[in-house]
Each structure stands twice: as C-alpha cells, then as structure tokens.
Amino acid sequence: MTATMRPQASACPACAAAPAAEALAQIDAPKETTIMLSLPGIHCAACIATIERALGSQPGVHGARVNLTLKRAQIEAEPDLTAADMIAVVNGVGYEAHELDAGALRATQTDRAGRDLLMRLAVAGFASMNVMLLSVAVWAGAEGVTRDMFHWISAAIVLPTIAFSAQPFFRNAWKALRAGKLNMDVPISLAIILAIVTSMLETSLSGEHAYFDAAIALTFFLLAGRYLDHRTRAIARSAAEELAALEVPRAWKLVDGEERQTPVAELRVGDLIRVRPGGRMPVDGEIVDGTSELDRSVLTGETVPVYAEPGLSVSAGEVNLTGPLTIRASAVGRNTSLHRMADLVAIAESGRSRYTSLADKAAKLYAPGVHILSALSFAGWYLYTGDLRVALNIASAVLIITCPCALGLAVPAVTTAASGRLFRKGLLIKDATALERLAQVDTVVFDKTGTLTAGTPEVTNLGDFTRAELEVALAVAEGSSHPLSVALTRAIREAGLHPAPIADLRELPGHGNQALWKGQSVRLGRAAWVGGGQTEQTAAWLKIGAGDARPFTFADRLRDGAADAVRALQDAGKDVILMSGDAPRAVEDLAQRLNIRRWLAECLPADKSDRIKALADDGKHVLMVGDGLNDTAALAGAHVSISPASALDAARVASDIVLLGNDLSPLAEAVTTAQSATRRIKENFTIAAWYNIVAVPLAIAGLCSPLIAALAMSISSITVSLNALRLR
C-alpha cells in the first residue's frame, strides 16, 4: 500500500524523536552530572548487561548506558557522585574502568590492541613449533633420561611463553573470578594452568605424561581466534564522533555591525552570525537578513536547494550556497540539531550492541559445563584410586580435551572467510556480528538520494532547445555553483557546444543568474523570478529577451544495479521499503520505477530512526541502506546496515557493511552469503559438540594421553577452520 508521511516542520531535524529528546533534556538538567568512563575490557552483550545493572542499582544514579563500539559508559547521576565512585562499582563486578578524558582521542588504542595480540600470537606459534618437534621424539619412544631432558627443554620454552602469550586469558579470568563470575576465559586459563602444573609434576617425578605441547597449542589456537575476531572489529569507529566532526569550529559573529571570528563554543542564543556563501551553518537559528539557497541534502536527503529568505528557520550542518546570510541563533552547542543527531546515533549504537551472538549464547552454557565435568572427574578418580597424581592428571586431560579451541574459532574463522568472499564482490564487513544479523533480515529499507539514485541531477529535455539557446544557457550557467547549473553545464559541454558571448553576468542569491546577450536580457533560475509556470519535475527556467520562459527539467538517475538489487531482494521474500527526505512526487516516481509498493517521503532524520525502531518493535529484522547524514541514526539503529563508499563519512562509520563499488547488485548476494555463513557457524558448533561427545568419555575414563589430547584438540580446530573455508 502506498503511503506518504509529512512530519511536522521543525528547525531541529532530530527533535521529533521524543524519547531521545527527553533523554537529552534529562542530560542537560542542572541537577544531574554526566560521568563518562572508558571500559577497555568489555567484549559482549553480557558485559554490557552486567555493568549497566550494577551502575543502575546505585543510589543517586539516574541512568547508565554502555556503548560496546566505543567501549564507554555514560552515567547520569546526582552531582555529589564522582567518577571514582562509579569506577569502584565497575571494578566490583570484575571490569576495568577509567575516567574518560573527552579531549583524548582513542583511535590508536584499537591498533595497539591488535599489535599486542599479533605479537603474542607470533611468540606462541614459534614456541609451539619447537615444542612439537621435541614432543615427536617423546612420542616416538624416547625413554628415561632422554625423555626427561626433552620434557625439561619443553618446560623451559613453554613456561615463559605461556606467561607472556596467555596474559589476555589470565587477566579476563581473574577479573571475572574476583567478581564471583564465570566467563569463557576461566576454563581456558584453568586448562592452561592445570596442564602446566601437571606437566611440571610429571617431569619432576620422571613421569611419562607431560602436556606442554597441548598447553602451548591451546594458547596458540585461541589467540588465533581472538585475533581474527579483533580484526573484524578493528575498522569500526564511532559515528557519533564523525557527526561531531561536522560541526563548524568557528563562526563570524556580528558585534556592533562588525564581523568577528568567534569559536562556536562561545556563541550564545540571540547572537547574530554571518554565514558566507559556501559556509556551513554553525547553529540553529532564523534568517534575519539576506537571500540565498540552502543545501539541506545532508540533513534531509532533499536534492533541490531550498530558497532562503528572512524568517526561514535553519539548522546546523546546512550549507549556504549563493548569498551571505545573517542568522539569529536559537540553539547552540549540544542543543543544535546536529549535536542532537550525534546523540541519537550514540543511543542507537548502544541499542544495537545488545545483540547476543551465537558464540555468546554457546559460551554461556559451555563454561559451567566444563568445570563440572573436570571437577567430577577429579573427585571420582580420587575417591576410586586415592591417588592425587592420577586424579589431577585426568582432570587436566578433561579440561584440555574440552578446551574451547573449536568454539573459539567457530565464529572468527567463518567471519573471516565470508568477509573475504564478500570483499571480492565489493563489500567490506566492519563488524564481527554483522553477518549473523544480516542472515536474519526480513525487511530492507532504502534511502533514495545517493543510495538508489546517483545523487546528481541530469538534464532530461536538452533536445527541446535550439543550439543557440543551449549556448546562451551554457554561458549563463557557468557563472554559478548551484547544483542544477553545474548539471546543466556538464550536459551541454558533453553535447559538444561552447558558451555564447555574453555581458554583465550577475548572480542574484536565491534567484538565479542574469546576463545580456546581443542586447537582450537573459535569465536562468527559479520559476517565480524568471516568469515560468509549474512543472512536476525539478526545473531551472530559461528566458531570453521577450520570449517565453522554458524549463530545463532534471531527474536523478538510478545507481547501477539498483533495479537488480531491489528485484532480487523481493524475489528472496524480503519486504522492501523506500524512505526519503525528498518531496513526495520524486519519491513516488522512483518507487514506481523500481516496483516498490511501500514508500515514505519528507522524512526527517528522527522520523527515519523512529520508523526503524517501530519496525523492530513489530519483530522485524531491518537492513537499512543509506548514505547521508540524515540516514546516520537509522543506520546505527537498524538490525544491520549498509552504506556505499560514496556516502558521507558519518554514514559509512555508522554502518556495519560498506559497499565499495557503485553497483548495488551485490546486496542480495550479501544476504545469501550471510545465511550460508550462519549455517557454517552452526555446523562448527555441531562439530565441536560431537568432538566433545567422542573425546570427553575417553578423557574421563583415563584413556587420554597427552598425545591424544594434543591431536584431538588440533584436529577439532583444523576441522572447524576447513569447514569455514568452504565459504570461499
């Protein structure tokens, strides 16, 4: 069913989002203080829930929100609470926290963390190869002093290597245990420590069983999985920071009629501000002097510039095109539409980060099960034999056999293989859980301008004009930077024509250009100024002398592959919706061309975000595809999102996937690949489960030697990796 939506006009595009606006109003309230904490150790939805629950239960805390992408917590609290109080609460539940310095950039931390993991992985890999060579000699039948020597050499290699390479697992396990919690790193750390302790005990007693090779192999495989997971996240950055970067740092303030360059942070409501042609609005306000045209495309997606005159409300981020304007500020700083939109994006990012991945769900059941099995094995064998050494050996074997290598590699291996396949098709996966979320999509929402269309107007009726008229129009249009003039200039130049000789070329801000040609007045611009009529399409009117005004009409051409992508998604059973800030007629025309039955026009940024949220509340899993600043909150709030490489920086970093080329046709294949990847992940979990079903009884029965433990662990990890490679 076709429908249109006309949101209430507002100088602030984000104000229509009532919940977000209320939250922002509370943040700004004088009786509250905002505390920002850095949380470098969080990595999943369980971390978010634990920290938010702990902070929210504290007296005086009005609200706490954790952002997984930024690894930050934002806390709204009574003024008497300090950052030190909140840090103590977070530490109390087993997580590291630091007071956040908003002026310090943390962009390098992700790279530093990646280098740290890679270095530990390299050390573990080098040590593992050497220890395996020594183990081969033992497995081949070395006995007595020779076997003991090889064991001691292995110990000399493994002990410092484990102390260095396994630190990420030890640190996370210790934090969880101090808080009385369990996570996946607890059984990992216990397996490594018990393997080392048991091996040292066996070696000192000239025993046959030593698990040095298994301990270092376990560390290596798990570090490989952790690094693969890190690499899939490393590209992601905060869209909210990108939005803030769009704010104008300085503005020209009018003081006693004179222009003074003033930092935007020092502007106040009521100040008069001069915005020159080509400048971006630094504040929300109202035009009090001057006429021009405004480019609102980054905020609304509307391709046609808006005529600006005294009395018109403007928003921060809009671009003044043609003439100087004087603005009276009505909202400054964090109260501007641009800043509120950044907060909308941060809120949306936090909501999306609550997604629980398949690996998180599996780990929640896995950790306690492993500990119970190992403890029961130890108790049973100790009661049966009365030999502490035998019981400890078997408990260690159970922990090593049930090591989460396969589980730890199940998701990263598939994600890396699928990401490589999609990269070759022109899609860059930025988020570790994006593929899992993409596989669940049942509704696809497209933006119009710059997404389904190329975002640049093209002349549709050049053949209606004579050669002389086109040459005159070219001469006049070349004197303007207006988007329609630029498009007209390009089209006429491509037709092989040259500008006619004209005189007295002038641009009237907000109206158009005029000149003299062979003594006749020539005008190119708005219909009301030129004397034109009404047209259903975007138009620039040309009037030469006393002749009738005639329109050059424009249309935005489809992006390559747009029709194929929409048709393929519909054939796959997806519900496709077109949502745009453009005028109803333009949106309806495009919807008809692409056979999209549901469309919404004149959507402000908050309208798009609210519509995405409403679809999610109805149980829909929404894929949002957009490219503009007006799409950023919707991209961040959708279940999963894609933006083209030509998109605004803020839109690209808010999305989970970036389309590197200009062709939209790979979108349908991305959904298919995501579904295949999810099947592979589930298959890997099944492989890991069957591996444990077969191997665990052997370990509990005392039939698992160090050789069997190391081989079984390696085979499970290799099998999972090979299954993932099938995606390539």
List its traits.
single chain, alpha+beta, 26 strands, Rossmann fold
Low-confidence stretches: 1-30, 101-110, 235-246
Output the CATH topology of the domain at 417-454 and 558-676: Rossmann fold
For the biggest β-sheet, the strand order reads 14-26-25-24-15-22-23
Helical residues, percent: 40-55%
CATH class of the domain at 417-454 and 558-676: Alpha Beta
Q: Could you give me the name of the CATH homologous superfamily of the domain at 417-454 and 558-676?
A: HAD superfamily/HAD-like
Q: What do the pLDDT scores average to?
A: 78
CATH architecture descriptor name of the domain at 417-454 and 558-676: 3-Layer(aba) Sandwich
Rg over CA atoms, rounded to whole Å, is 32 Å
**Strand residues, percent:** 15-25%
Number of strands: 26
Number of helices, where a helix is a run of at least 4 consecutive DSSP H or I residues:
26
Would you kindly provide a written description of the structure presented here, covering whatever features stand out?
There is one protein chain. The protein is of the alpha+beta class. Among the domains are: 32-104, Alpha-Beta Plaits; 248-335, Distorted Sandwich (Calcium-transporting ATPase, cytoplasmic transduction domain A); 417-454 and 558-676, Rossmann fold (3-Layer(aba) Sandwich); 456-557, 3-Layer(aba) Sandwich (Calcium-transporting ATPase, cytoplasmic domain N). The protein contains 26 helices and 26 strands. The strands form five sheets. It has a seven-stranded mixed sheet, sandwiched between helices. Strands 6-5-7-13-8-11 form a six-stranded antiparallel sheet, with no helix packed on it. Strand 25 (640-644), helix 24 and strand 26 (657-659) form a beta-alpha-beta unit. Helix 4 (107-139) packs antiparallel against helix 5 (144-165), helix 12 (358-385) packs antiparallel against helix 13 (388-401) and helix 17 crosses helix 18 (483-494). It is elongated.
